[in-house]
Amino acid sequence: MNHLPIMPVMIPLIAGALLFLIGGRGGGLDRVIGVTATVALLPVALLLLQVAGTGQVMVYYDGNWSAPFGIVLVVDRLSALMLCLNALLALASLLYAITGDDRLGPRFHLLFQMQLLGINGAFLTGDLFNLFVFFEILLIASYALQFHGGGKVRVRATLHLVVLNLIGSSVFLIGIGAIYAATGTLNLADLAVKVAAAGTGQAGLLKTGGILLLLVFALKAALVPLGFWLPPAYSVACAPVAALFAIMTKVGIYAILRLQGLVFGPEAGPAASLFTPWLLPLGLITVVVATFGILASNELRRLLAHLVVLSAGTLTLTLGLDSPSAVASALFYLLNSTLVGGGLFLLADLIARDRGDAGTSFVTSQTVSSPLLLGSLFFVGAIGVAGLPPLAGFPAKLYLLQTAFLHPAGNWVFSVVLISGLLVVVALSRAGSAIFWRTGKAQKPATGIASLQSAATASLLLGSAALMIGAGVTTGYTQATAVQLADHTGYVEAVMENRGVVVLPAGQGGS
Amino acid sequence: MLYLLVSIPFIGALLVYPATERLRLPPSLVAGLMALSALVLLLFIGFPVYSGAVLLSRAEWIPQIGLSFSFRLDGLGLLFAELILGIGVLVVLYARYYLTELEAGPRFYAFLLLFMGAMLGLVLSENLLLMMVFWELTSLASFLLIGFRRHTSEARQGARLALFVTGGGGFALLAAVLIMGQIVGSYELSDVLASGRLVADHHLYPLVLVLFLIGVGTKSAQFPFHFWLPHAMAAPTPVSAYLHSATMVKAGIFLLGRFFPVLAGSELWFYMVSGMGLSTLLLGAYLALFQHDLKGLLAYSTISHLGLITLLFGLGTPLGEIAAIFHVINHAVFKASLFMAAGIIDHESGTRDMRKLNGLFKYMPHTAALAMVAAAAMAGVPLLNGFLSKEMFFGETLVLKWLVEAQWHWLFPMAATVAGIFAVAYSLRFIHDVFFNGEPVNLPKTPHEPPRWMKVPVEVLVVLCIGVGVFPNFTVRPLLESAAAAVLQQPLPEFSLSIWHGFNTPLVMSLVAMGGGAILYSGRKWLFRAHDRIPFQISGKQWAESLVESIFQLGEMVDRLLDSRSLRRYSFFLLAIVVAAGAVSLWGESFPAAKALTPVTIPVVIGGLLLGAGSIATAVWHGKRLLAVIMLSIVGLMTALLFAYFSAPDLAMTQLLVEIASVILVLLAMYFLPQLTPPESSRIRLARDITLGVIAGIGVAILSYSMLVQPLDSISSYYLSQSKPGGGGTNVVNVILVDFRGFDTLGEVTVLGIAAVGIVAMIGGLKIWGPEKDWLGRSWAGDRHPVLLTTVSKLILPFALIVSAYLFLRGHNYPGGGFIAGLVTGVALTLQYIASGSDRARQRLPWDNLKLVGAGILIATGTGLGSWVFGFPFLTTTFAYVTLPIVGKFEIASAMLFDLGVYLAVVGTVLLILAGMGGLHQREENV
User: Fold this and answer.
1) Number of C-beta neighbours around residue B508 at 10 A
2) How many Cβ atoms from other residues are within 10 Å of residue B666's Cβ?
3) What does the pLDDT read at residue B540?
């Protein structure tokens, strides 16, 4: 019995449960458990990527109940890719955190593992209600992590996060209810079949349910006009938390992509291509508004938070182009923007520590104590996030624009993406100039930057360079992923054939 | 070989730092050697190109988007590469003496090499997307170089301005290249060049051309994008000499040549390109004359010469294109030497202001001689290189097919001559003002000759000016021919490079320019006064800066308008959109043929009415909190009854217990709230919110109705039939919870645990100083631990525990289970806290509730993992019937162990949350 597919949730679940038993502050044992579990995620994710890369869809039947009755975990190319990305981002964030940020509040490592549990589970599950459960896990962990470190601004941000997401969760449940009422099933693969076969009597429920889910995911992905909560929250979150949160909006994007590919695809009967007409306008508006937010930011962390929104918007509009190559380009973009976005949050924290009272705001202050290190990292990160060469943001943008060229709304995509790109460059050059150039002459004595901190930051930012070098392989993979998503028969068959269910030897009770 | 060639500067850029710090080598030496070795390599491998060969190397990179790692060395690339590396070597040598090692340091040379590599890659790219990679890199490298003196605001502003303009142009060019590639179907230059008129005949051609020209115009400082270049002069002079005269600003020109066969030849091309070139030529020449800063004069003259080259490309004739390339070489050579000379003057005299600099010939005759020759080349004096290309330019303006038809044929020769006059005048000014014209005025330093080696680069370039000017056929002809052939992609027409073509119109124009220039210069005092009196001075820089500033302001405005940072607004938005989207998707859909619904009975009606009334009352009385909580509990109670009525006893029990726990929680929290509610919403807002609420309610009602009338055919029938045989229990709800969907339950229990941790974390460090008395001055409780409550709660506890054990055990077959039992235990223990105070309760319940939660999750998970041992997936359950004496036959299911985990986690969570809140309260009282 191959248990590999469930490992990405088992590892953080067990680690998290152990961390309940082992003390909160001090000791160091919590760090050992947290880091060990997070490190262990990486080989697991890579192994899954390797198997998924062959085109195989791995299905894990929880409780040995066959689909569609039990809960299944499914690893296809998309899931494996997201798991890998999460493992990388989490490891870097955690390594940064153990230099001290994890002691700013109680039970950081517990919450961190639970956050990973929620995110990994959302990427793995093949069941709509189970997706809700993992959303709840990742949400509730994110509330507590958002608060980590305490303080008035964080309380406020957390409150907003909680209230809005509670509304979101209720909507999620209503949506699931509607879809269940129309199809009588929760298994995504089964839904793919049932929705395609649904009659007109179910159309209203399916469409409403689907749209409600889309809105919930859009809330999570912080798309305008639902995403105003994000910048104030992310810009005050503790650095490693903010870095990890770079993937949270992508969970929303993932869910949109998954349901678009599986349940509300072009063959989905009365709910065919349900999401598609909404995505392009949502994405375009989000990009425009986020760009304004970027311009309006007077400090780096807020700017970065708006950049997170911008990347979610770009992803959404790309998915709205509705073609396999659009999906492929979106996934490549997602990898780059997540790594660089996370890295930049860590970098902003390093800068803020170095500058003392000036923090990350764009005011004249003392020269940062290690301008070479921080300046180069900022330059690399800015290039990566603005989509300039020689980093992976550039081919990602090229890929997107090439895809858009064939679309009727291509001119909109071209203008919005390129103009917003220019304005991002303008805003980032202002930020860099203010922080690194517009300084007093006096150089401060070096304040210590732990080598682990700079290594964690650099590894995320240079992830973009690695992606660029391996862009041929990576885009090959994302393209295969897009093809796999476009034709979901492989997924549905893999789940519904129930080949992974262990058949009982005769004469034994139970299942 | 091409890969090696392009990578040498980049490797150099990486090596400069370690070489300087570890090996203590001067960074200039490293940079110089790198540039020199690249140059030698280029000359070596470039040899066959003179005879028309094209060297290609190709490697796949990202086939999905057509980006390949392919380079191409043809005549045009060779010419530019030679300029880049040749002048690069000289600039490094010059910078070695111009900048102190302390100021320059490895950083400067690393940037310079980075730029060199980017330029080299640009001119040698075979793949268009790769070319764009290098194109953007040149912008970034130049940003760093212009901003090199980062402490001065001119440098910072100049750098950002340049990045804004050239970066914007880069994006336009990117769009043009993408469209072009899509039209042709390939991004390889060979394919694009071989596609003939494909692009020019496409309906998107005008768009491509405009975007392309924005890219070209911004990079090569063409009107109206020229304004960034003078401000880029904040860079150290070696940078200006290199980037802003010889190489980077020629990148746009390079593209004009590269895409000449693809895009040129149309009327649109002619009007746009030559129009842009012509206006730039005139404007630059005019403004150059009025600069007082030496580098300013050179910057505007560069703009003007770039305009000239663009104009030549715009003419679209083969000879014009040859002249354009010829002028690229000549301009690079004389302008680089002039910048270096200007740098020497600045370096040795401390100023670049021509109103102060006078009569320097006495102090630095050698430098003066060099500068004068170079300036004469710029003016187009015979026997120097500038003369030859200018003659060709004059000649070309005379033969124009479109303008002849339009009766405008006099315009171009006329404009060319006027520009020539200005060129002569500003060149004269450069010579006369600086080296003669009296004595210097208030110089910061006493000028003298620079170090020997600082002049060598200038000497080399000046010798080239003369060499090309006198013996053009020996020196540049092969290079020019191969480059021109590469541009045209067809056999070259006959052309002659010689000083004397006979007495013809171009010569007359040259003579007029010389004479006119001299006259213009002699009348300069009057001219300067007139120029100063022009009331409106258009400053492109100010325009661009105010544009950027207003973009920032617009950003702030939009941000403030949209993002209210108010939770109420966010929630309203969210709900409104949910309602609107729901309405849109529900609109016009039909219900399935209604199936028979259960009859409406009196209890249901009463329950429903109470439910509604309770909800409304909660909302209405939200200011009177205690009342609101009571009203809310009506809602909860009715829901529980509803569950019970519709045969869902498990749900009813859960709902009831959750209701109890929540009410306790709310009451605990209420203690800390301010005693008066904040100001109420305005009536309008209230009306708005009520409307939204009502619509949402109607929407959910319609949705619910629509769910109810659906024909029931779902997975639940499987659960009903499999509960006993597959799950070993008759209580389907419980079997679903612990078995069919145990994974969900595990997740939800974890959610509870995390919530508890989160709450503990949040209130852990919290200190709220609540009032001792209420607002009427009454103290909160007369008797903190009423005897009656304490006694009764002690009595109740064992019963409650027995009840919960009973509920737990029978759960698999009858209503009950771990979750419900956990709630019962939790609530019962909470009662102990309330009755005896948390200190005493903690003494008597000495375990750590967090550990209880953890143990619960671990037990549940461990039960699931147990099935691995038997080769089953996670959470596979098994059960057996055991017969014991006294008890008789009963069932042991592994799911019960799982349920035990759930039980423990729930107990722990309830205690953590309620006791945590209560503990906060307690601490308060003890203060």
Assistant:
1) 13
2) 16
3) 67
Task: Check if A433 contacts B (Cβ < 8 Å).
Answer: yes
Q: Work out the minimum CA distance from A48 to partner chain B, whole angstroms.
A: 17
Inter-chain touch A201–B592, beta carbons under 8 Å = yes
Residues 441-460 of A with CB under 8 A from B: 441
Q: For position A151, what pLDDT does the model report? A: 84
| In chain A, % of residues over pLDDT 90 | 71
Inter-chain residue contact B555 with A294, CB threshold 8 Å: yes
A164 closest CB neighbour out of B107, B160, B571: B571
* Interface touch B136/A296, C-beta < 8 Å: no
Among B803, B818, B810, B824, smallest CA distance to B738 is for B818
Q: What pLDDT, on a 0 to 100 scale, did the predictor assign at position B887?
A: 60
Q: A450: which residues sit within 8 A by CB, 6+ positions away?
A: A99, A100
Most confident stretch, A23-37, A329-343, B697-711, B799-813: A329-343
Report residue B676: phi and psi, to 5°: -110, 145
The structural domains of chain B, with segments of one domain joined by +, span: 564-674+682-712, 729-775+782-927
The string of pLDDT tens digits covering residues A54-96 is 999 999 999 888 888 999 999 999 999 999 999 999 999 999 9
Task: In whole angstroms, give the CA distance from residue A81 to residue A7.
Answer: 15
Hey, are the CB atoms on B589 and A203 less than 8 Å from each other?
Answer: yes
SS3 B927: coil
pLDDT of residue A508: 44
R_g of chain A computed on alpha carbons:
22
**pTM for the complete prediction?**
0.92
Residue whose pair of structure tokens reads 């590396």 in the numeric block: B85
Residue-wise pLDDT tens digits, B385-443: 888 888 888 888 877 655 556 667 778 888 888 998 999 998 988 888 888 888 887 77
Chain B residues in contact with A68 (beta carbon < 8 A): 715
Summary mean pLDDT of chain A: 91
- Cα(A477)–Cα(A82) distance, integer angstroms: 12
Provide the pLDDT for residue B925.
46
Q: Chain A contact for B573, CB < 8 A? A: yes
Q: B572 to chain A: which residues are within 8 Å by CB? A: none
> Which chain A residues are closer than 8 Å to B739 by Cβ?
63, 65, 511
Measured between CA atoms, how close is B195 to chain A, in angstroms? 20
Distance, in Å, from the CA atom of B118 to the CA atom of B6, rounded to the nearest integer, reads: 8
Q: How far is CA B258 from CA A60, A473, B138, B845, in A?
A: 57, 31, 17, 84
Contacts of B861 in chain A (CB under 8 A): 10, 13-14, 17
Q: How far is CA A98 from CA A103, A149, A348, B718, in A?
A: 8, 14, 17, 49
CA-CA distance, B642 to B738, in Å (whole number)?
A: 24
Min Cα–Cα distance to chain B from A319, Å: 17
CA-closest candidate to residue B910, choices B853, B869, B840: B853
Q: Is B221 left (phi over 0), alpha (psi -120 to 50) or beta?
A: left
- Which chain B residue has the Cα nearest residue A108? B761
Q: What is the pLDDT of residue A510?
A: 41
Q: Kindly list the distances between the CA atom of residue A379 and the CA atoms of A385, B11, B119, B122, B180, in Å, as whole numbers in the listed order.
A: 10, 19, 20, 21, 31
Asked if B715 and A186 come within 8 Å (Cβ–Cβ), the reply is yes
Question: What stretches of B811-878 show up as alpha helix (H) in DSSP?
Answer: 818-836, 838-844, 849-869
CA pair distance B453, B711, nearest whole angstrom: 94
- Residue, of B441 and A412, whose pLDDT is higher: A412
Determine, for residues B874 and A479 on separate chains, whether the beta-carbon distance falls below 8 Å. no
Distance from CA of A21 to the nearest CA of B (A): 5
**d(CA B102, nearest CA chain A) in Å:** 15
Using the 8-state DSSP alphabet, how is residue A436 labeled?
Answer: I
Residues of chain B with pLDDT under 50: 923-927
